[in-house]
Amino acid sequence: MDALKPVDTPTTPARRNPMLADTEPTDEELHQVMLEARDVARQRKAFSDAWMHEQLEKAWREARTRDGQQID
Asked: Quick one: how many helices (H) and strands (E) in the chain?
Protein backbone atom coordinates (compact mmCIF):
# COMPACT_ATOMS: atom_id res chain seq x y z
CA MET A 1 0.00 0.00 0.00
CA ASP A 2 3.03 2.30 -0.01
CA ALA A 3 2.20 3.15 -3.62
CA LEU A 4 -0.99 4.86 -2.43
CA LYS A 5 0.75 7.08 0.10
CA PRO A 6 1.61 10.61 -1.04
CA VAL A 7 5.23 11.53 -1.52
CA ASP A 8 6.55 14.19 0.82
CA THR A 9 9.21 16.40 -0.73
CA PRO A 10 10.92 19.41 0.82
CA THR A 11 9.07 21.82 -1.51
CA THR A 12 5.68 20.09 -1.62
CA PRO A 13 3.97 18.89 1.55
CA ALA A 14 2.28 15.51 1.43
CA ARG A 15 -1.30 15.67 0.19
CA ARG A 16 -4.01 13.64 1.75
CA ASN A 17 -5.19 10.66 -0.28
CA PRO A 18 -9.01 10.64 0.02
CA MET A 19 -9.15 7.02 -1.16
CA LEU A 20 -7.45 5.74 1.98
CA ALA A 21 -9.92 4.62 4.64
CA ASP A 22 -7.93 6.01 7.57
CA THR A 23 -7.89 9.65 6.44
CA GLU A 24 -10.14 12.40 7.76
CA PRO A 25 -11.56 15.14 5.53
CA THR A 26 -9.93 18.53 5.82
CA ASP A 27 -11.84 21.59 6.98
CA GLU A 28 -11.79 22.92 3.42
CA GLU A 29 -13.29 19.69 2.08
CA LEU A 30 -16.00 19.71 4.74
CA HIS A 31 -16.72 23.34 3.99
CA GLN A 32 -17.09 22.59 0.26
CA VAL A 33 -19.39 19.64 0.92
CA MET A 34 -21.55 21.72 3.24
CA LEU A 35 -21.83 24.52 0.65
CA GLU A 36 -22.87 22.04 -2.01
CA ALA A 37 -25.39 20.38 0.34
CA ARG A 38 -26.84 23.80 1.22
CA ASP A 39 -27.20 24.71 -2.46
CA VAL A 40 -28.94 21.42 -3.25
CA ALA A 41 -31.27 21.85 -0.26
CA ARG A 42 -32.17 25.37 -1.38
CA GLN A 43 -32.92 24.16 -4.91
CA ARG A 44 -35.09 21.33 -3.61
CA LYS A 45 -36.95 23.70 -1.29
CA ALA A 46 -37.60 26.18 -4.10
CA PHE A 47 -38.92 23.35 -6.30
CA SER A 48 -41.05 22.04 -3.44
CA ASP A 49 -42.43 25.50 -2.63
CA ALA A 50 -43.35 26.10 -6.27
CA TRP A 51 -45.04 22.70 -6.53
CA MET A 52 -46.96 23.31 -3.28
CA HIS A 53 -48.10 26.73 -4.47
CA GLU A 54 -49.27 25.21 -7.76
CA GLN A 55 -51.19 22.46 -5.95
CA LEU A 56 -52.87 24.92 -3.59
CA GLU A 57 -53.83 27.17 -6.49
CA LYS A 58 -55.28 24.20 -8.36
CA ALA A 59 -57.25 23.01 -5.30
CA TRP A 60 -58.56 26.53 -4.68
CA ARG A 61 -59.76 26.86 -8.29
CA GLU A 62 -61.40 23.44 -8.21
CA ALA A 63 -63.19 24.25 -4.95
CA ARG A 64 -64.42 27.58 -6.27
CA THR A 65 -65.65 25.96 -9.50
CA ARG A 66 -67.29 23.11 -7.60
CA ASP A 67 -69.11 25.57 -5.34
CA GLY A 68 -70.26 27.55 -8.39
CA GLN A 69 -68.49 30.73 -7.37
CA GLN A 70 -66.93 33.18 -9.77
CA ILE A 71 -63.14 32.87 -10.01
CA ASP A 72 -61.45 36.25 -9.83
From this structure: 1, 0
